[in-house]
Design brief:
Layout: H1 3-25, E1 29-32, E2 40-42, H2 44-54, H3 56-81, H4 90-99, H5 102-115, E3 121-124, H6 126-144
Antiparallel strand pairs: 1-2, 1-3
Helix pairs in contact: 1-3, 1-6, 2-3, 3-4
């Protein structure tokens, strides 16, 4: 990996540590039962809050797979980029990335927005684009942070 790519990955990953929480609270869409009434803003956090009120087990699972797994993966990649964690952890982070269902959650949101919720009016908000960008950036950073191959992979100073 070139030095400039390494710097870009570090900075992009650090940006994700800030942007993911912003995207969770940002309005993803606005929905209303009827176009004449006010629109309610829906975010990842507000959706989870309503889920916690109805099904705690499902809310716990969604919270882990949609929030904690992608954030822990991003944090782990940052630690690897800055040499604070060994690259041997990358396979674990890749598995954690596969468990992270932020991308699946995002696809479900797009389907909901494009099809509508059956009754009422739904429009996208700026948070949906921010969340999409975060998910795509996280996938890209994870793919570009590949384990080292060959003789360097076994060096004791490998980070």
């Amino acid at each position: 990996m070139t030095a400039s790519l390494s710097i870009v990955l570090k900075l992009a990953n650090l940006a994700l540590l800030v942007l993911f929480p912003v995207a969770w609270f940002a309005p993803l869409m606005r929905a209303a039962a009827l176009p004449l009434f006010g629109m309610s803003e829906i975010s990842v956090i507000s959706g989870l809050q309503s889920l916690w009120g109805t099904d705690v087990f499902l809310a716990l699972a969604v919270t882990f797979f949609a929030l904690f797994a992608p954030y822990v993966k991003t944090l782990g990649l940052a630690l690897i980029h800055f040499g604070l964690m060994r690259r041997r952890v990358l396979p674990v982070l890749h598995v954690l990335g596969k468990l992270a269902m932020a991308d699946v959650f995002l696809i479900a949101l797009y389907i909901t927005v494009s099809k509508g919720i059956g009754v009422g009016h739904v429009e996208t908000a700026w948070g949906l684009y921010l969340f999409t960008g975060c998910v795509l950036a996280s996938l890209g950073i994870g793919l570009l942070t590949a384990p080292r191959r060959g003789r360097d992979a076994k060096a004791p100073t490998d980070v």
